[in-house]
Amino acid sequence: MFRRTLIAFLAIATAAIPACGEDTAPGDSATSPSSTSAAPTPSVSAFPATVGDVTLPTLPERIVSLSATATEMLFAIDAGAQVVAVDDQSNYPPGTPMTKLSGFQPNVEAIAGYTPDLVLVSYDPGGLVKSLKALAIPTLIQPAAASMRDSYEQIADLGTLTGHTEEAATLAEQMRSDIAGIVASVPPPSDPLSVYHELDDTFFSATSRTFVGKIYKAFGMENIADGANGKAGDYPQLSSEYIVSADPDLIVLADTVCCGQTAATVGTRPGWSSIAALHMGEVLEADDDIVSRWGPRAVDFYQLVADTVIAIEQQMAA
Amino acid sequence: MEAAAPSDGGDARPIAVGSLGVSWRWVLASAVLLLLALVIGVAVGPAHLGLGGIAASIFARIPFVHASTALSAQQESILWSLRVPRVVLGALAGGTLAVAGAAYQGTFRNPLADPYLLGAAAGAELGATLAIIFLPGQAFLGVNLVAAAAFAGAALAVAGAYVLGRSAGGMRSVTSLILAGVAIASFLTAIQTYAQQRNADQIRQVYAWLLGRLQTAGWQGVSLVVPYVVICVVVVVAHRRVLDVLQFGDDEAASLGVRPRRVRFWVVVAATLGTAAVVAVCGAIAFVGIIVPHTVRLMVGRSYRVVVPLSLALGAAFLVLADTLARVAVSPAELPIGVITALVGAPFFVVVLRSTRTAAP
């Protein structure tokens, strides 16, 4: 009985963990990393370097990343050659030194076995950071970003700690510019489109306070998860009744990998047949990984949403 | 007509009974409570349908009643494809878990027994977890493979516990069966936890399943559980008098013409089928199978002639109300029903216990 009650609270807590799948087809990111073989030499003169309470006396050459987003950022700023191991979720870009290390259930001894001079994590499960600190292994926590500003800051921090300050600044500026251009390319809608973002097939969603929610907000869309008014956190589990009655203009499926959801499977759900978006083909089947990570490929998702919004507007105009 | 609970050290107060073995006063009270729960469950939800609109829609579906619905097509869809099947499923699941809990408690003469005693929940959880990880979104013959795997897991776990218990201690020993159930449940839970940790990206789906849900099943969920629920309820209700006799012990029961091994086998099979079906469709909803029969005992008496039928009605009402609360507490978001059954059920149990002690002479 106690176990089930405990699970109840764990479930609510884990609702805030963004989904991420394993099998990801590489996207055509505008900010895809260049080949690591052509990576420029990092700047060693910038050391010792400090970010927060992490100070590196010398250039790190044995980085272990237990964060899929951090891995994408590292390779995007040409620091890939300094990475010796990544966790089992870091499946992008192709060719990462993927291992069986887990960012969710980390094994300190296994991590230490790579003799890292820098470890990157997105959160601190089971006192991992304290354990690594006891082994004198510098560890940087880069939590899930709440906005693109957070993402740019994390890229800059990684640039500082890896000696790729310029590349990091260039990447962030490129992303900022690309996103501004993408958002500007979409004409403001006469009536705001409503969107339902689905994290899994039990109807967990994301409000406008989240990283992905702010992407929809950038396009002037109304997020139906905001109707929960934060009563169930930023990642509420919505009622099926509510989703049907809200009749969203756009359904974004961020559970195509984790839960095998498609426009076709959604169409067979009880009561969902009355949702207009299903009949109009306005269901965006997104890659779980691209949607749930706050790294360079966020630009890809901005583009995907922009293309979809333009298509919907054109359909409505016709 | 009078019926008395067996003298196993508990409350043996006599109660007036009808043909079902239950006081008509309690039958009426239970029926009213269940009806009230069903009405509340259908009337309340995140989508505002209005009592008048719901009533008109219901009348419009009754043959030979010339009424027309005032609800829009979308509202009709919400009412008949989402809300009503959910309420019906909640009633079936709650009633079944409560009856199965009472059956297990009677069969094993253990007040702490619940429908998951022999590993049904652990088996279902392992089956569901493996299906979520390896077969996401897959269906076979229109049935979600998660539900199918959960049902198979529950049934196999209990079968395994039964075989293990029988080989270890013979059917004469209830204790050996319970210990076998504990061993099987622990073993399967260990595998489930390992599988879950190795696939942490699916941890939310697994937790969501573990905590139970009624919201996505629809009429298909209802049709899947109905046959097993019928088997479970019919068999357990038919054995309710025998369960009373079993409380005196196997030897005494045998001297009275009851065959304890056979009774135990069929009651466990029926209760397990009902539990497995409910868990497969709704997830492992905790608390119902233990708190409802106990509440009935505390309020009415210990005879299984009373406990079984009243548990059916009160279990149904309890889960419908719990699910309604899960729907509206943070509407339009939802709370897992397992959280509600635990948070509401435990204090309710304490209140009943205290009030019963206060009222006792």
Can you offer a commentary on this structure?
- The complex is a heterodimer of chains A (318) and B (361).
- With 318 residues, chain A is α/β, with parallel strands linked by helices.
- Chain A is built from twelve helices and ten strands.
- Chain A has helices at residues 2-14, 68-76, 108-112, 128-134, 148-162, 165-184, 211-218, 240-246, 263-267, 276-280, 288-292, 298-317; strands at residues 49-51, 54-56, 63-65, 83-86, 118-121, 139-141, 194-198, 222-223, 250-253, 283-285.
- In chain A, the strands form three sheets. Chain A has a four-stranded parallel beta sheet with strand order 4-3-5-6, with helices on both faces. A four-stranded parallel beta sheet of chain A has the order 8-7-9-10. Chain A has a two-stranded antiparallel sheet with strand order 1-2.
- In chain A, helix 5 (148-162) runs antiparallel to helix 6 and helix 6 (165-184) packs parallel to helix 12.
- The longest helix of chain A has 20 residues, at 165-184.
- The radius of gyration of chain A is 21 Å and the shape is elongated.
- The termini of chain A are far apart.
- Residues 1-37 of chain A have low confidence and may be disordered.
- Chain B is mostly helical and 361 residues long.
- Chain B has helices at residues 24-43, 51-60, 73-108, 120-134, 145-169, 174-198, 203-210, 218-238, 240-246, 250-255, 260-282, 288-299, 304-328, 337-359; strands at 2-3, 15-16, 139-140, 143-144.
- A two-stranded antiparallel sheet of chain B has the order 1-2. A two-stranded antiparallel sheet of chain B has the order 3-4.
- Chain B is globular.
- Mean pLDDT of chain B is 85; it is low at 1-17.
- At the A-B interface, helix 1 and helix 8 of A face helix 3, helix 7, helix 8 and helix 14 of B.
Topology, element by element:
The complex is a heterodimer of chains A (318) and B (361).
Chain A: H1 2-14, E1 49-51, E2 54-56, E3 63-65, H2 68-76, E4 83-86, H3 108-112, E5 118-121, H4 128-134, E6 139-141, H5 148-162, H6 165-184, E7 194-198, H7 211-218, E8 222-223, H8 240-246, E9 250-253, H9 263-267, H10 276-280, E10 283-285, H11 288-292, H12 298-317
Parallel strand pairs in A: 3-4, 3-5, 5-6, 7-8, 7-9, 9-10
Antiparallel strand pairs in A: 1-2
Helix pairs in contact in A: 5-6, 6-12
Chain B: E1 2-3, E2 15-16, H1 24-43, H2 51-60, H3 73-108, H4 120-134, E3 139-140, E4 143-144, H5 145-169, H6 174-198, H7 203-210, H8 218-238, H9 240-246, H10 250-255, H11 260-282, H12 288-299, H13 304-328, H14 337-359
Antiparallel strand pairs in B: 1-2, 3-4
Helix pairs in contact in B: 1-13, 3-8, 3-11, 3-12, 3-13, 4-5, 4-6, 4-7, 4-11, 5-6, 5-11, 8-11, 9-13, 12-13, 12-14, 13-14
